[in-house]
UniProtKB/TrEMBL annotation:
The keyword Transferase applies. One of its GO terms (molecular function) is glycerate kinase activity. It comes from uncultured delta proteobacterium. Its EC number is 2.7.1.31. This is Glycerate kinase II.
């Protein structure tokens, strides 16, 4: 028997690799002779660096960069085992978790640190970069990212604009003569699970600005500033459709900057991750697939990791079991995505704190119970 184990992390408790190893331990108690393939995954958001480094036997890097308000932060990123692909989460340099709620500043927060991480990856000689752009604290149209890589954003007098999205109201020209030439030679794939354009009622400022601290008046100010940026960037690059492109408004407009100034492709996060670990070739060898996440509910069916795993497995008719920390409203929706059965690791009434503290043991025991049931079922005469 060949069992493939491909879970997401249990956020706040266990990494995707921890989850996979716990599932393997439990399953081995029942199927000691089985072959196991552990493929920790993510959906392009938090945990993507950890999952892809583990899945490819890669290594971690840490780079000191500017945080969203310019303060230095130590940002973790990763290299695949082959040393040719870097994986970066922009939230590690420019994310909301880096700021206290009362310190959020949508007008001035900046993606410069994310650009510094990309530059560090290029300095390592990579030929491909996977970039997750969820969880941003910024609304600067990705201009900080581009500045860190050599672009200049100038006012009508030829002076460099200060950081942040509000300053873009005074943008008159963009100088790309100093843009790092390595960007054009690098395969950049961006995990992007939102379809918002750059501006307007569904744009970066209107939809995501309030969670980054923007007042209603500041939302209008930022939306207008990003409109100026879009006009100047389109004129500079000749890319006239970027602002309306699905995903351009992701991460406060970083999606747009990536489209304007690099050859990046925006992709659903779980699709990107599964492609990166060569999942299709690995899953077709399996007889059984385990997946899971911290909580399975109605959201799981909309592009979350277990749904992506199940859809890939179903192309080959392979049964999929989802083993999650908890189950919420709409959990059964994933059954239409190719998952055959869903289980919670909780053996009975139990507090959240107990689940968090004993997650590994609960996972091991739940995987064992499921495998015993599968073994018993294999002997049924139907």
């Amino acid at each position: 028997m060949h069992i493939l184990i491909a879970p997401d992390s249990y956020k706040g408790s266990l990494s995707a690799l921890d989850v996979a190893e716990a599932m393997e331990t439990g399953a081995k108690r029942v199927f000691p002779g089985a072959a196991f393939d552990l493929v920790p995954i993510a959906d392009g958001g938090e945990g993507t660096v950890d999952a892809l480094v583990a899945a490819t036997n890669g290594t971690f890097r840490e780079t000191r960069v500017k945080g969203p308000k310019g303060d230095p932060v130590n940002a973790k990123w990763g290299l695949f085992g082959d040393g040719k692909t870097a994986v970066i989460e922009m939230a590690s340099a420019s994310g909301l978790p880096l700021l206290a709620p009362d310190d959020r500043d949508a007008l001035n927060a900046c993606t410069y640190g994310t650009g510094e991480l990309v530059r560090a990856a290029l300095d390592e000689g990579v030929t491909a970069i996977i970039l997750g752009i969820g969880g941003s604290a910024t609304n600067d149209g990705g201009t900080g990212f581009a500045r860190a890589l050599g672009a200049k954003f100038l006012d009508g007098s030829g002076n460099a604009l200060p950081p942040g999205g509000a300053a873009l109201a005074n943008l008159a020209s963009i100088d790309l003569s100093g843009l790092d030439p390595r960007l054009a030679k690098t395969d950049i794939r961006v995990a992007c699970d939102v379809d918002n354009p750059l501006c307007g009622p569904r744009g970066a400022s209107a939809v995501f600005g309030p969670q980054k601290g923007a007042t209603p008046a500041q939302v209008k100010q930022l939306d207008a500033a990003l409109g100026v940026f879009a006009a100047v960037a389109a004129k500079t690059t000749g890319k006239t459709q970027v602002a309306e492109t699905a995903g351009a408004g992701a991460a406060g407009g970083l999606g747009a900057a990536l489209l304007y100034f690099t050859g990046a492709a925006l992709m659903p996060g779980v699709t990107l991750v599964l492609d990166a670990v060569n999942f299709d070739a690995r899953v077709k060898k399996a007889d059984l697939v385990f997946t899971g996440e911290g909580r399975t509910d109605f959201q799981t069916a909309y592009g979350k990791a277990p749904a992506g795993v199940a859809q890939a497995a179903k192309k080959y008719g392979i049964p999929v079991v989802c083993l999650s920390g908890g189950m919420g409203k709409g959990a059964d929706d994933v059954l239409a995505q190719g998952i055959d059965a869903i289980f919670s690791i909780a053996p009975g009434p139990i507090s959240l704190q107990e689940c968090l503290e004993n997650g590994k043991e609960l996972l091991q025991n739940a995987a064992e119970r499921i495998c015993r049931l599968l073994k018993a079922g294999a002997g049924l005469k139907i």
